Every structure is written in C-alpha cells, then in structure tokens.
Amino acid sequence: MSAGRTQGLLLAALLGVLAVIVAYQMRGDAPAGPAVASGGAAAAQTADGSGGPVTDVRMDLLRREPSAFRAPLRDPFRFYEPPAPRPAVQRAPEPPPPPLPSVARGRPTPAVQTRPEISSSIRLIGIVERGDMRVAHMQDGTSNPPFTGLEGDVIEGKYRLLRVYPNAIEIAYIDGSGRMQIPLTGR
Length: 187
Prior knowledge:
This protein is an alpha+beta fold. It has a domain at about 115-180: Roll (SH3 type barrels). It has two helices and seven strands; from the N terminus they run H-H-E-E-E-E-E-E-E. The chain has helices at about 5-25, 110-115, and strands at about 125-130, 135-140, 145-150, 155, 160-165, 170-175, 180-185. The strands form two sheets. A four-stranded antiparallel β-sheet has the order 4-5-6-7, with no helix packed on it. Strands 1-2-3 form a three-stranded antiparallel β-sheet, with no helix packed on it. A hairpin with a 6-residue loop joins strand 6 (about 170-175) and strand 7 (about 180-185). The radius of gyration is 44 Å and the shape is elongated. About 5% of the residues are buried. Mean pLDDT is about 75; it is low at about 35-45.
C-alpha cells in the first residue's frame, strides 16, 4: 500500500467514528431519572419532585469558631527540622606545646641519645576534634594508607602518640625516647 492510500483509509475510519458519535448525541435519548438543574427555582426541588423550597438546611451548624480547631501536631508534608543546636561550651585556651628537647652544652638530652630521631617522613595531615577528644591523621610518606590515633596509641608498632595539640602532635618511640613534634601540614 502506498502512504497516500493508508492515510486515506485512516481518515475515512476517523470520519466514520465521528459520525457515530454525532448520531448518538443527536438521537435525543435522555436518561430516565429527573433532570439535574443548576440553580434558580429548579434547584429548590425536593427529592419527591414537589418543587417546594428546601427549608431543613441549617447553615448556622456548618459554621464553626476558629478556636474550635487546634493546630496539627505533626505535618507529614514537611521535611524534618532538627532541634536547635546546643550552645557551644567555652573551653580554656590550650597551653602552647612544650618546647622540643634542647641541646645542653653541645650534647643532646638523654632521651635523644638512646635512639636516633624519629623519621621525618611521618606527616600530620589532619586533626579531628569531637568534644574533648582529638584524633590525629598521619601518613608516613610511602604509598601506605593514612593511619589515625588518639593520645597514648601505638602507631606503626614503633611509635607512641604522646599528645595531640590543635596544630601539632608529639610522638616518641614506644620506650619514650626520641620525642618529636610534628606540625600540621594538611597534605
């Protein structure tokens, strides 16, 4: 079939359906029940068809005072609103970190004499504070993943995290020798 012939048949079918609809509408068959009116005197008809006015509707019962309704306790169409944040507790300022062991008269302190200084490849990459607890995130300069620790934790099996300050950490070997402060680098 050609496209023109297919379109012609489709048009003829649509015209036939339209003719059936128009004929059904023009036939004039009305429903068997009473006609529904939309206002005026015809709207005053009662159910028995007597046509008298309807007097049993009491509009005063439909009106209520605004104070009779309470505000809803819960609205399922609103998002959750978290409670107001608690006021922040003011802490005393943190004392500055103690100075690094100094060299007295050309000799290092006994803590540094027993072991070499801690490898400078350990970097402090972040500090997370939660309440009164600080967690230090460190990396050792290799491709190993970062590691974390709290004050007193053993790191990589050979270091102890002595203190976590807001901007630095203090670590030493497990036996307490070789203390070193590492500043926060953020990398």
